[in-house]
Amino acid sequence: MHFIKYHAAGNDYLVYAGHQPFELPAAHIVRICDRHRGLGADGILVPHFSGDPLGVTIYNTDGSQAQKSGNGLRILSRHLWDQGHVGSEPFQVHTAGGVVISQVLDDGARVSIEMGQARFDEPATLSVGGEQLQAHRVSMGNPHCVVFVDQPDEALARRLGPLLEHHAVFPERTNVQLVRVTDRANLEVRSWERGVGYTLSSGTSSCAAAAVAHRLGRVDAQVAVHMPGGTIHIELDAAFNVKMQGPVCRIGSVALDPECLSDTV
């Protein structure tokens, strides 16, 4: 079973490059993504070439499917460009969270994606870990919970992230963003992804954080979102349609030995 590995601002995915249908149980996906017993990744991307537009299934490290992934879509776009399936012109990709428009830039080094419209729900005050947190709920085709904090860091994300992900107000769980406004053009963000956990960056999290901050009047319509893995640039229009641009890097091709999965159930 062959994969090609990429990372987008430190968020790494395996793109399935085999010819047989990708039909694996969740336990196998968990093992493949395991960084000690498998190939290691934040998720798996399975392209679909039969439809129009092109499509993708996105798997999280817990074996569940994600509706949308900004970093994953940039990686998919780069892979399609690497394989000659697309050129330098914009093209559409179908996801479970809606259709996006992607364009590969700078000889594959960067990808720009029109991610769709941010849709807001009413904020909620949540009791989490002995704290009262103001949760700003927004959908980018997948659910997000944006919380503004004085100092976002990994330890705080690991503590609050799972509690918010599984909070009763989010019956389908949620992605979590801890956000600090640096100035009107910059945000600092730490992300906890639904079905994955703490990640070095997140594309849809960047979109959600920027959309909420702009709606509250705290940043301008163009904002750089800084995360441990790198920076993603977000642009919003008056209707809160979101365009995301960020880096992509190809890591290499890898083959999975069947022995890797022999003790999974």
From TrEMBL:
The record marks H144, E193 as: Could be important to modulate the pK values of the two catalytic cysteine residues. Pathway: Amino-acid biosynthesis; L-lysine biosynthesis via DAP pathway; DL-2,6-diaminopimelate from LL-2,6-diaminopimelate: step 1/1. GO terms for biological process: lysine biosynthetic process via diaminopimelate. Its EC number is 5.1.1.7. The keyword Glycoprotein does not apply. It is found in: Cytoplasm. Belongs to the diaminopimelate epimerase family. Catalyzes the stereoinversion of LL-2,6-diaminopimelate (L,L-DAP) to meso-diaminopimelate (meso-DAP), a precursor of L-lysine and an essential component of the bacterial peptidoglycan. This is Diaminopimelate epimerase.
